[in-house]
Amino acid sequence: QVVDVVRDEPITDVFLMTHGWMGDVPAARLQCNNWIGAMAAQTADMERARAQRPGFKPLLIGLHWPSLPFGNEELGGGDGVSFAAPGAGPDPTAGNQVTPEQLLEDYADRTAATPAARAALQTIFAAAFDNVAPVEMPEEVREAYLVLDREAELGSDGAAGAPDADRDPFDPEAIFRAAEDEMVSFGGFSLGGLLAPLRTLSFWRMKDRGRRFGETCVLPLVNRLQDAVPAGRDVRFHLMGHSFGCVVMSATLAGGQGGSLRRPVHSAALLQGALSLWSFADSIPAAAGRAGYFHAAITKRPVDGPIITSQSEHDTAVGRWYPLAAGVARQVNFAPGELPKYGAVGTFGIRGTEVQDREMLAADGAYQFEPGKIYNLESSQYIRHGSGPEGAHNDIANPEVTHAFWEAVLTE
After folding, report:
1. Which residues of 54-93 are buried (b: 16+ CB within 10 A; e: fewer)?
2. For the whole model, what pTM was predicted?
3. 130: exposed, middle or buried (C-beta count within 10 Å: 0-12, 13-18, 19+)?
4. What is the DSSP letter of 183?
5. What is the pLDDT of residues 207-240, one digit of tens each?
6. Which residue from 217, 246, 312, 349 could staple onto 270, CB 3.0 to 4.6 Å apart?
């Protein structure tokens, strides 16, 4: 349908948006609607778009990828769809309302579904339900986690690895101990107890799913849309990803299994990105000078205009949980001014390649972005509101953030 619209209607700009982890269909719809509403509320930016792009007619496309543990993935309406939660669907594990058997199928999908993995999951869930506040990890649980990690086929390639492998070797006991002190959240569930290593494994599998979704679904879609543009018509494409959605959009830009973009897009926004700060690096200091996994998003020049990112000290999801999941407690603390081995774009920005660091401006500020450059926007003044352990991770649908995006969209 969207290909037909691009081909048959006088579209001038195509916006593709995607959410991060912990997004079911209702949450994805809500996040897209909130973002679109915040963009439309920037009336001065809208007027500038109409003046700068005669006949301005946008097509807005929300991209959903199944990424929510216990998420409602029904595409239809009816009693099965819940619209109650503002960010993500409810977690049925709250209050031990589900059984180990019910959880097994869910987490087999998120880790591995082999017979050995299922047996390991049975051991883990049985122990977790029998002992909700363990002092130490039983040996049979530790062994089960090692089996599950092996069956999940996740790599441990360090800072230069793919999104499912940019971590240290899996150490379930270290994660269990770290989780006792770091009860943090990444979009709606807490980390702790014997299930902490399991949720960490799920974290990396969802990162990999985001990468594959970008490379094999979003990238081909963008190429189809670009191919549908009638000759002689100037249609610009703009990408926006939030959280793990930044993995999706980075994979779209860098290419991979789906090939490469047929033509560059005009702008890209990676908001509170839950991907490695070294993802785009020319040379990673902690990885023997290897380039970042998404370095092709620089070398292929898939963006004609600017790439912008946002950072906020109030985002505790990417500020605390991301490095904990990657390196447990080994690289969470570092000297002032030092960049860590493991950290998120939403905290540190894109590093290891040529970038410009700026402050996010008020909703009428003039950025004067330049085409082909990367801008890290320190946004703590505006991305600051949120409840729960994730902090301000989801506070992006506001005037200042959407104005920054508009400024990138309208860069000539």
Report:
1. eebebbbbbbbbebbbbbbeeeeeeeebeeebebbbebeb
2. 0.86
3. exposed
4. -
5. 888 999 999 999 999 999 999 999 999 999 999 9
6. 246
